[in-house]
């Protein structure tokens, strides 16, 4: 049997309870009711982890039936708001895919292009992620008018692969773009297919020698060509990750009668409803309750 460190074990068993969902859309300063223009999923606020599943498009059980489609002018800003702010480290991206007919009838099987990435900022010497309760994106001015699925994704990489499986938090809004142009947005990718177990942005351990990061998926499309880093969203909370301190894990020499000792590495989960893992944080960090479902060593 392969021996795992205590830290690896605590990462592997963690994170089974509820999380967060992008559930509400705002257009031009108007915030619409929950799931009016966003496809309602059937898995509460849990993530998708299967890289080959069609659920990666718009989440589990999220179809166009019962979802309305909102008109958005090209160049306008659209905001996704969550039930609970994103609290897992990882990138947030926004994709679009043009519907051959109406957005409500579209299954997302066509090409997707990316219009925005929020990746980590390393300028302070450690990684700072944009963890927020809402994310605002501008619809590109040059894309053709018509119906689209507008898809937001947070890739939670807080439990490093392969001991932990990265988590996709996804929602799709249905929009009709008006006043668009004759641009040819790309590059486009298929979903599933766009994310692989070989992507450095999927496999990276953010707690160990984390110095650079490539957000998975295609390059961000911009009407004036080239990459568009975009502007930061108006309200953000940020979390600084630091190199995880080396914890002295008990080793195989402990006697069978000694009580199990374990510590959760900084940034790991240490509590929450249903949590059965370690609750003691490594030296230098304390267990902080994010919500009923998640406490983290900070
Ligand atoms: C960091 O940069 C190196 C060198 O370009 C690259 O091989 C690696 O995949 C990058 N890591 C991430 C997580 O993007
Ligand atoms: Cu989680």
UniProtKB/TrEMBL annotation:
PROSITE patterns: CBM1_1, CBM1_2
Domain CBM1: 262-298
Keyword set includes Electron transport: no
GO CC annotation, single: extracellular region
Principal subcellular localization: secreted
Annotated Pfam families: AA9, CBM_1
One of the GO biological process terms: cellulose catabolic process
Subcellular location: Secreted
EC assignment: 1.14.99.56
Cofactor(s) the protein needs: Cu(2+)
GO MF term list: cellulose binding; metal ion binding; monooxygenase activity
Stated name of the protein: lytic cellulose monooxygenase (C4-dehydrogenating)
